[in-house]
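Per reviewer request, we include the raw input and output of the structure prediction for the construct analysed in the revised manuscript.
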Amino acid sequence: LPVEIEMWEWLYYAPVFVAVGAFAAFACFDFETGAAIAHFSLFLMVTAALRWLAGITSL
């Protein structure tokens, strides 16, 4: 994604990513819909924390 994207614009992009990630968890792990969304959200938080710990700030 381009660097020029503002944070508020992620409100339009994020649901697509969450839906795809939740569907992947739903299909691979046979989770219920709510559990699949929670699983993908946990994955996003852990990935963001690891990027922060590694000092990676840009895409």
